[in-house]
Amino acid sequence: xxxxxxxxxxxxxxxxxxxxxxxxxxxxxxxxxxxxxxxxxxxxxxxxxxxxxxxxxxxxxxxxxxxxxxxxxxxxxxxxxxxxxxxxxxxxxxxxxxxxxxxxxxxxxxxxxxxx
Length: 116
Known about the structure:
Sig_transdc_resp-reg_C-effctor, HTH luxR-type domain-containing protein, mainly alpha, DNA binding
């Protein structure tokens, strides 16, 4: 019995460590505005894309990548810095995305993505 518990604890610890490393790589790819971000995020969080497609299946890849930035809780200034556009352009993109995903202006967009 103790051996099973120990094995389970070791598995959980290893799984947790792998997840942390995977998340760190995703953040690194986001900061580099890497084209690999989308595929890496899809492999790590397949449910995110399924849930997003239920709400709007017509999102462009660029909009999906922007959703990833919001899911990662990157600020407007950070996204602007990493994507080489102005903060105003990012704010406009957020507003367009709110309309496409039917997110009210009263809703915290970061919390909305956390719950997705």
